Amino acid sequence: MLTEALLSRTAPLYERVRGVVPAFEWPAFAGDVDAILELKRRRNAVVLAHNYQTPEIFHCVADIVGDSLALAREAATTDADVIVLAGVHFMAETAKLLNPGKTVLIPDARAGCSLADSITAEDVRALRRQYPGVPVVTYVNTSAAVKAESDVCCTSGNAKAVVESLGVPRVLMLPDEFLARNVQAETDVELIPWRGHCEVHERFTPAEVREFREAHPGVVVLAHPECPPEVMAEADFSGSTAMMQDFVERERPAKVMLLTECSMSDNVAARHPEIDFVRPCNLCPHMKRISLGNIRRALETLTHEVTIDPAVAAPARRAVERMLAVR
Ligand code: 13P
Ligand code: SF4
User: Fold this and answer.
1) What is the distance in A from the centroid of ligand 2 to the CA of 76?
2) What is the bridge-based pairing of β-strands 103-105 and 82-86?
3) Which atom, in ligand 1's list, is nearest to the CA of 50?
4) Which atom of ligand 2 is found nearest the CA of 52?
5) pLDDT score for 165
6) Does pTM top 0.85 for this prediction?
7) Which of 207, 217, 252, 319 is in the most buried spot, having the most CB atoms within 10 Å?
């Protein structure tokens, strides 16, 4: 039963999402939001939320929000005892690698990623045998076991800088084929890709972008580099989710289309009601496993705790730390 007191306590939080969460939906969220804020205080916990989390999580209970790179950086500096990762499993593993002594929780342990599932540690070992001496750059969207077989990690926000930091003519760039091909267009380093794809971004097509441009004249198109290169060719700008957000903040286009996961537009739109968001978007079923309900449960019961075999964690941590040292 919702009390007047609870609704008035959470009213300022509702103001943050008023533009994207209908008023009739708020009572369904208010109780969990209120409980999560109290549990965070009690547990000395922080909630890290990726840009693809739904607005009531992103704007109302998260302490730190951002792209994969920002979440990794911030995870390395928090002094909380408990970290709840509102995102997918590889992000929680990265947070744990950087905080071996802290409790890192993922609210739903099944929150995976098609890219992380596309490659195994044995695949990386086989590639090393096939390309002796060629360094391995691995997207953070991978398991700790795959990171452990890699020289250095990257995200969509720093991939070109990481590849070029190695000072070599040839690099294995795993596992996102499209990210590798998109970075290839910007660097002279030869990139050898793997065959992994993001199931969300691979679904966008150039024809779809052209149709939306025709229907919405003047729309500015931003694409995530996990999209196929043919889609990127139709875009006005490309970058990680944080780079897309920065672009919108900086340029304030009247009409914008973000070729990425659906909650991204909602989260930026919540802060910019004056901007018209054209929304062909695809949902990530893994990101959508996280809810206020399971964040609350995670904090109440301290589940699901992320653990990593120490033999895997040490080399995986090295690959992540090398990435963080690049930029
Ligand atoms: P970034 O937020 O780093 O751009 O990554 C996007 C993504 O698909 C994460 O799963
Ligand atoms: Fe993985 Fe794509 Fe979902 Fe990100 S959006 S978690 S890359 S499947």
Assistant:
1) 22
2) parallel
3) 2
4) 5
5) 98
6) yes
7) 319
For ligand 1, atom 10, which residue shows the shortest CA distance? 141
Select 201-278's CATH number: 3.30.460.10, 3.40.50.1820, 1.10.260.40, 3.40.50.10800.
3.40.50.10800
How far apart are alpha carbons 132 and 129 in whole angstroms?
5
Q: What is the CATH number that goes with domain 4-112+287-301? A: 3.40.50.10800
Which atom from ligand 2 is nearest to the alpha carbon of 116? 1
Nearest in space to 223 (alpha carbons), one of 258, 274, 186: 258
Question: How confident is the model at residue 1, as a pLDDT?
Answer: 60
Range 116-198 classified under CATH 3.90.190.20: no
List, for residues 20-63, the tens digit of each pLDDT value.
999 999 999 999 999 999 999 999 999 999 999 999 999 999 99
Closest to 280 (Cα-Cα) out of 230, 231, 225, 229: 231
What pLDDT band is residue 168 in, cutting at 50, 70 and 90? very high
Q: List Cα–Cα distances, 130 to 124, 181, 204, 263, in angstroms.
A: 10, 20, 33, 40
**CA 70 to centroid of ligand 1, rounded, Å:** 10
Q: How many CB atoms lie within 10 A of CB 254?
A: 10
- Average pLDDT along the chain: 97
Question: In which residue ranges of the chain is CATH 3.40.50.10800 found?
Answer: 4-112+287-301, 116-198, 201-278
Task: Name residues contacting ligand 1 (CB within 6 A).
Answer: 51, 67-69, 141, 155-157, 198, 226, 240-241
Kindly give the distance from the C-alpha atom of residue 200 to the centroid of ligand 2, in angstroms, as a whole number: 6
